Amino acid sequence: MSTTAEENEPPEIKVSETASEKALALLEEENLDTDTAGLRLFVQQGGCAGLSYGMRFDDSPEEDDTVYEHHSLRVFVDPASIGYIEGSVVEYETGLQAAGFDIENPNVVSECGCGESFRT
Predict the structure, then answer these.
(1) CATH classification at residue 105
(2) Cα–Cα distance, 41 to 15 (Å, whole number)
(3) Mean pLDDT, to the nearest integer, of 4-28?
(4) Residue range of the domain that includes 110
(5) What is the pLDDT of residues 62-81, one digit of tens each?
(6) How many whole angstroms separate alpha carbon 78 and alpha carbon 42?
(7) Alpha carbons 113 and 67: distance in angstroms, whole number
(8) Per-residue DSSP letters for the chain?
């Protein structure tokens, strides 16, 4: 059974209103039900600094996920990733050269030069 963030004690993972709106629009484009589906945020081995972020859409949370909800967007985080990203904020940024999701993670002690991977 998935748990809510309140039942776990780690600092909450937050999602900005802009990021939530963009993710919800993408979920709807994929014909996923925003009442049950959500954004999966995870950490995986890789990159020159050792760890990298991953994001994808899932139909529903896994049994052991922590589930957050911000601005009607559900965010699923697995137990192996939560310690690396607790307290993070997911933003959506636009610029002259690119637009995309960005994670502000207070646990990061160093990042690679390109910013694609990190170490805690």
Answers:
(1) 2.60.300.12
(2) 11
(3) 83
(4) 3-119
(5) 999 999 999 999 999 999 99
(6) 7
(7) 32
(8) --EETTTS-SPPPEE-HHHHHHHHHHHHHTT--TTT-EEEEEEEE-STTSEEEEEEEESS--TT-EEEEETTEEEEE-HHHHHHHTT-EEEEEE-SS-EEEEEE-TT-SEE-TTSS-EE-
pTM: 0.81
**Exposed, middle or buried: residue 13 (CB in 10 Å: 0-12, 13-18, 19+)?**
buried
The count of domains in the chain is 1
Contact 107, 120 (CB under 8 A): yes
Torsion 15-43-86-107 (CA) sign = negative
Residue where the block lists tokens 């207070």: 106
pLDDT > 90? residue 31: yes
Amino acid present at 47 = G
Query: What are the tokens at 111?
Result: 């990042």
